[in-house]
Backbone:
């Protein structure tokens, strides 16, 4: 399954409510570990104005800078052009299309929480991303 005949890379979309925490961390880890071998997107069903500062700090601890990222609104086009859609607590607001692979990662929402609370969420997301890369046959 590929996103287009012109681009043989798998395409992955991370979705959460605010696109300010979990989906940003997922996209950042996938970009960091896979480089340009995977097309990576993230979006939120009700995007926040900025990425959660505790998420920025927690990711900086592992050498990944997400400070310049901005939350993006989830669009039908983003879902349609992705091979794998990973939802992280967006519930029924995530559009579902036949033929797409959906994974629902049950993760705590880091909204309003400090760096200490974000770290275990970050670790869980990194494990999930590494598992996804293994399934896709892409070395981390």
Residues:
């Amino acid at each position: 399954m590929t996103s287009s005949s012109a681009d043989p890379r798998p395409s992955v979309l991370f979705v959460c409510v605010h696109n300010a925490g979990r989906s940003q961390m997922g996209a950042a880890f996938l970009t960091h570990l896979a480089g340009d071998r995977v097309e990576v997107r993230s979006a939120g069903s009700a995007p926040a104005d900025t990425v959660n500062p505790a998420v920025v700090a927690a990711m900086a601890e592992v050498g990944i800078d997400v400070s310049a990222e901005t939350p993006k609104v989830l669009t039908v086009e983003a879902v349609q052009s992705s091979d794998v859609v990973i939802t992280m607590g967006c519930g029924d607001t995530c559009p579902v299309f036949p033929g797409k692979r959906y994974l629902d990662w049950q993760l705590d929402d880091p909204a309003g929480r400090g760096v200490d609370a974000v770290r275990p969420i970050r670790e869980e997301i990194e494990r999930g991303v590494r598992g996804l890369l293994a399934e896709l046959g892409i070395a981390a």
